[in-house]
Recover the amino acids of this structure.
């Protein structure tokens, strides 16, 4: 007797699980390389977590220290100390929220945005060196896969 046919939904779930397994294998070395590239690009006075904080605030103007702490997975005092350092270095600014004077809103300064652009440009160049051995077709596949991943995870 033949095995029962799988529903399209269960087949998709199996394919998704298989793909997730491939991601779990492929992403760690990619992220290790990415972190190394970022460290090389950053000014010695700025840590990778500080850069992540700067990027978060730049992408979410008006965010709070609590939101930043949740994003970074750190305590509120840790995030607050990081914000203080970024303000002292001129990369962030804070202001009292117009609608709620108990809330502090964060924003990247022009200096912070310029630093992010510089680091991103350098990181993009360094990462490109790791992709030079791929054919144009393979690069197109990677680009398509990144677009799909961005779409799938952008709501997370």
């Amino acid at each position: 007797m033949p095995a029962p046919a799988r529903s399209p939904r269960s087949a998709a779930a199996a394919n998704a699980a298989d793909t997730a397994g491939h991601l779990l294998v492929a992403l760690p070395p990619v992220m290790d390389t990415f972190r190394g590239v970022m460290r090389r690009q950053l000014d010695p006075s700025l840590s990778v977590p500080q850069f992540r904080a700067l990027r978060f605030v730049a992408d979410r103007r008006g965010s709070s220290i609590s939101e930043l702490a949740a994003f970074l997975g750190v305590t509120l005092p840790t995030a607050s100390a990081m914000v203080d350092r970024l303000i002292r270095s001129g990369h962030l600014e804070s202001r009292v929220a117009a609608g709620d004077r108990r809330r502090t809103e964060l924003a990247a300064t022009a200096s912070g945005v310029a630093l992010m652009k510089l680091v991103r440009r350098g990181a993009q160049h360094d990462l490109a060196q790791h992709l030079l051995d791929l054919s144009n077709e393979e690069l197109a596949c990677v680009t398509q896969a990144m677009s799909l991943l961005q779409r799938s995870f952008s709501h997370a």
Summary: The first strand starts at residue 92 and ends at 96. Helices lie at 8-41, 48-59, 65-72, 76-88, 110-130, 136-153. The beta strands are 92-96, 104-108. The chain has a mean pLDDT of 89.
